[in-house]
Amino acid sequence: MPHQVLIARLLAGAGLTEQDQARLRSMPHTSRTFKNRDIVLRQGDTPVQCAVVMSGCLIRQRVVRERNQISSFYLPGDMPDLHTLHLPVMDHELCSVGTSTLAFIPHSHLRPMLIDFPGLTNALWRETLVHAAIHREWVENLGSRRALPRVAHLLCELATRLEVVGLLEDGSFRLPFTQQDFAEACGLSTVHINRTIQELRRMNLIEWRGHTVSLLRRKELETVADFSPDYLHAFKVAGPLHGRSKGISDQSAMA
Amino acid sequence: MPHQVLIARLLAGAGLTEQDQARLRSMPHTSRTFKNRDIVLRQGDTPVQCAVVMSGCLIRQRVVRERNQISSFYLPGDMPDLHTLHLPVMDHELCSVGTSTLAFIPHSHLRPMLIDFPGLTNALWRETLVHAAIHREWVENLGSRRALPRVAHLLCELATRLEVVGLLEDGSFRLPFTQQDFAEACGLSTVHINRTIQELRRMNLIEWRGHTVSLLRRKELETVADFSPDYLHAFKVAGPLHGRSKGISDQSAMA
DNA sequence: CGGGGGCTTGAAACTGATCAAAACGCGTGG
DNA sequence: CCACGCGTTTTGATCAGTTTCAAGCCCCCG
User: Fold this and answer.
1) Domains in chain B and their CATH numbers?
2) Measured between alpha carbons, how far is B76 from B50 in angstroms, rounded to an integer?
3) The whole model's pTM is what?
4) Which chain B residues are Cβ-neighbours of A255 within 8 angstroms?
5) Across chain A, how many H-helices and E-strands are there?
6) Does the pLDDT of residue A239 top 80, yes or no?
7) Measured in angstroms, what separates residue B191's CA from nucleotide C12's C1'?
8) Which residues does strand C reach (CB under 7 angstroms)?
9) In chain B, which stretches have pLDDT less than 50?
């Protein structure tokens, strides 16, 4: 059911009318599961469908100067190649980290739908704008912060984004990444990432064992990271499968 | 006339029908000129109109860790706050560098227009996607390249973007930035930017005197910069005032 | 002609990279 | 169940790129 995940996600940002939601529920789709490090799309591909991350995690990456650079993480509810509706050629590779499940919706279905439902157009457009804001934040992170706050910032971002889709439990979340992935996202060497993580552990700000990360003392971590969640433009919701269809004022506290 | 600049820009990417173009020409607007370092919008502002850069240059910036970080440049034809249609609060500051002229179009005019003209929605949405692609490229630039190729890459990007709007003359363009601006965009210190520029001069790849930059041996510069213009998703046109309105198959090559 | 912002230069300090190797953990096959 | 093997994490030592601080210079604008 990509519908529930997507509806929850879009509701967390823009408003959707009942008609919009009903229209989303009628979307045809196919699902596919990817294993760790499976390539979902390659640079140069021109897909004819858009993916919705149902579970798991994707990274957007490209080799720059013999070094792999990760430029985005995509978590459940994200649409990693939504832009192919307007920019047909992929200029990066999309890769599954850990097992992930994607739902695919054909462009040929999306295009007429978006013409008939401007509310959905706005909601999806907004999604791409939020991702642009995340990219800008990464620019700031890479350009202005040194290793420790930089890594801390990325952890805060991941925690917050997972929280929005209900995948943060008591400050802990499952993270399929290796330290090398983190290095490639942060523009640091693997060795230095390792030392930075150890430093964060020593400061009692995080635990990271295996594929589980816990944020201890989240406020302090956010201070160290110089993190403010505003740029994510997201509202916390109860969980990915709980829309707000019955409540009348769920998000009023966030207005 | 924001219409011509905007139409030229949008034509350079997506296709626009005659009706779309006519509709753009009927947009009401106000113009305003800003002096060097004038603040156009502040963090926290919730503008009710969108700007189109008519001439000059804006930067998007924010203070991170007592350091000013620039996360975007906006050149003629760009719409630096288009995203406020969907994300009302500015999370950065927009600042004019050198004298620049902006045209403003009210949200209240844009919104109904976009509902009635899906082609215009797509064209503007596409613009935001191109800027997202530029942000990703900056992430790669900051994360993977060291000073010399990093600065060279930014110069190549600026040249290419200016070329698209006809502001590149024989490899030369007017650049209102100081070296400090470049430092703040590249995540480097002013001192090191200076040394890097000198190195580029010594390699006979650029000239940079006052506010004029010339790219000598552009191919070599692009090689050093590891630059490929694909991510800009732009087509070179004769100039900003020359649309392709008479052709019958302007975009057929892109279908 | 004066002032000031921007550019340039030098030396020292530091952050993070690189190289190399060892320890660890975990899934697989014997 | 144990041994193997490989990918990941950890550690140490050395090195390089970049920052920082401080001062001088140039040039343009007023």
Assistant:
1) 3-133 (2.60.120.10), 147-246 (1.10.10.10)
2) 14
3) 0.93
4) none
5) 8, 8
6) no
7) 15
8) A 146-148, 187-189, 191-192, 210; B 178-180, 190-191, 194-195, 197-198
9) 238-255
